[in-house]
Amino acid sequence: MRRWAGQDASCLNMTRPTDPTLLAVPPSLAQRNAFTFAGTSRKVENPWTLLDDVDPEGSVPIIADSNTADYILHLAIGDELTIHDAAGAPRKAKLVATLAGSIFQSELLMGEADFRRLFPDQSGYGVVLIDVPEPDAQPLQRLLGTELDAYAVTVDSTADRLAMYDQVANTYLSTFQTLGSLGLLLGTIGLAVVLLRGLVERKAELAMLAALGFRRLDRLRMVLVENVFLLLVGLGAGVICAGVAVLPVVIGSGRRVEFAALAVTLGAVLLTGLGVLVLAVWLGGRHVTPADLRAE
Q: Using one digit for the tens of pLDDT, what is the confidence trace for 237-247?
């Protein structure tokens, strides 16, 4: 693939690129149609053919990774951005399609004919894609890295390149998970405080139940059942709201939901809440006697 070196357009670049790196899509790659598309400007059998469209306003059709378009360039399909040709003249480029989770998150893709028109002096190829069976990938990577070391060639596997892009997202996710854990801790403490306050306010009611012959265990079970019901309702409402919020993203990106990890997390939240409720009920209701009713 012919390459015009510019700025990194992926999440590895902390600033918004003004002149992203451009790659020319050769006809052989377009004919293979081996990548998954997240969206296109119009429905076609092979979305790569959209790079051959001629815009009446002179815009150059380009394709970008969906993550790059959404979060770095802030572009929707059909939007335009300004790029510069070899002479430094500004040219309009229109986003006609987006790729889903591809290895091209650092670059923008355009047709080879448009690339050679905008960068006529850019000879040779800057990126080479090699399709090999998975067992041969690492041996070939080591071989190429050794043989081409003198030419300052970087050899990356698809898995390594995608992992590099995911590293930034995983860092954000780890941060949010830490903040979520802190929120869970604060919410658990708040739940215990609210329950203890409720037991103090209902001390006379519990004392009356004790005077009527209700055993201590029965009184505590009654209070616990009430609060467990509230815990389950709150947990269910949170799951439903979260599901509604993330459902469009899951459908649009085509990513798989880790239901096992989600179930473990919800189970941990439920067990933590139940443990706090049992502890709060036991601490708040263990000293309630009929004498407290006379005191009231």
A: 888 888 888 78
pTM of the model: 0.64
Q: How many CB atoms lie within 10 A of CB 194?
A: 13
Sign of CA dihedral 280, 282, 286, 290: positive
User: What does the block give as tokens for 80?
Assistant: 């335009």
Residue boundaries of the structural domains of the chain = 3-129, 172-295
Query: CB 264: neighbour CB atoms within 10 A?
Result: 11
293, 204 Cβ separation under 8 angstroms:
yes
Residue 64, phi then psi, degrees to nearest 5: -135, 160
pLDDT at 296: 46
Cβ neighbors of 6 (< 8 A, separation 6 or more) are 17, 19, 20, 21, 22
User: Could you tell me the end-to-end alpha-carbon distance of the chain, in angstroms, rounded to an integer?
Assistant: 85
Give the separation between CA 112 and CA 129, rounded to whole angstroms: 16
E strand segments, 34-147: 37-40, 60-65, 80-84, 90-99, 107-111
- Strands 90-99, 80-84: pairing is antiparallel
Taking the C-alpha atoms of residue 64 and residue 76, their distance in angstroms, rounded to an integer, is 10
**Residues 6+ away with beta carbon under 8 Å from 205:** none
